[in-house]
Design brief:
11 helices; about 75% helix; DNA-binding; homodimer; Tetracycline Repressor, domain 2
Chain lengths: ~200, ~200
DNA sequence: GTCTATACTGTGATAGAC
DNA sequence: GTCTATCACAGTATAGAC
């Protein structure tokens, strides 16, 4: 792997572990056994590393959300949600100190907001599709509030699990998926509701 | 007001506005038109200011949660939630960069975790009380998942509103209360559910 | 209690040799 | 491309006069 890519991967790992503001360029260089000067040969500054990592995250998430084939099966929704959670976990440093991070990098904050907005719209679309298919029963108002809660829970679950249960790895991802699904559960047809219950027990 | 108290109040305001890591002791002193030396006469270091502010937050929240009179009325729950949200808003800097903050101050992180745990237990108790009174219908498992979602939403609503809608003040607090109530809504008796709908329209 | 001046430290970033 | 050396600056904290 080229040095430039190694810098990015090492930065991502350290940012996720300690939080971006707590990781210095010297630490990144040390971890890779290269000199700080070498790091600054490949990147103008620390912000450039951050922006590149954000672009990775952004593209990956956009690719996921651009799928327009919304299946009505509970399993498929579970899988889709799991992919979303994996993306979040992979770039969790973006989610854990948002005010600090976006306060110092407004453009990144704006792009992040656009992602969240896209997630919210996709969630509404999925709910309305499920409703049209009779799998879900809810008023438009209920769907709007539900979508907001789903996005919020997906966004902050990993932070919450870290503070609350001290989890570090990806062990708690399945519980996150379950928590989101349990937001939808009361609006589901009995059949899908039971199916969800079974899946929940299998995964937790 | 004594200088010591003015330091605390000024710090709180600045921490909430810019995030604790982005506020320097020099800024705090400047804002108050005192010298940095004077600030360090009253506090050994920046951490001591943080710890004192956290203690304020902690006591206020504990006072709220120690109420053991759980009314079944939707209005009372709305009011109680509003008080919780006001406490969160008042010390919102604690909620906005948790990983960074608690990474550098583990003891504070532990105490914060205890507060969240207490909130979760109180939420479960309220739900079970409502269930016993027939206002709410849900299995134990549903209540556990619901409580976790309620605490998570309450914890992160203000951060989410800031990122998503750019809100700064307390204007979005009512919507936060509404979002939490909408988590409970599907489990409520029709009567309370309608009442909630009416209240939601009045407040939003 | 409050001020001014200053020391110390860590971090981001650059210059120039190899 | 990579290294060593070094700068510049910001932020924390202290010393000592008033």
């Amino acid at each position: 792997m080229k040095t430039r890519d190694r810098i990015l991967h090492t930065s991502l790992a350290l940012f996720n572990e300690f939080g971006e503001p707590n990781v210095t360029t010297l630490q990144i260089a040390d971890e890779m056994d290269i000199s700080p000067g070498n790091l600054y040969y490949h990147f103008k500054n620390k912000t450039e590393i951050l922006v590149e990592l954000f672009s990775w995250f952004e593209q990956q998430m956009n690719d996921l959300l651009d799928i327009d084939d919304f299946s009505a099966s509970v399993e498929d929704q579970w899988l889709f949600l799991h992919l979303v959670f994996e993306n979040i976990a992979q770039y969790r440093f973006l989610y854990q100190d948002m005010v600090n991070l976006f306060g110092r990098h407004e453009k990144i904050g704006l792009r992040f907001k656009r992602i969240l907005e896209k997630k919210r719209k996709a969630t509404i679309l999925i709910c309305k599709t499920l409703e049209a298919q009779g799998v879900l029963t809810a008023t438009d108002k209920e769907i709007f509030a539900l979508a907001e809660n789903i996005v919020l829970t997906a966004t902050y679950w990993i932070s919450y699990a870290k503070v609350m249960h001290g989890s570090q790895g990806d062990s708690e991802l399945n519980q996150g998926v379950f928590q989101v699904m349990s937001l939808v559960a009361p609006y589901l047809r009995a059949e899908e509701r039971e199916q969800l219950q079974v899946m929940g027990e299998a995964y937790l």
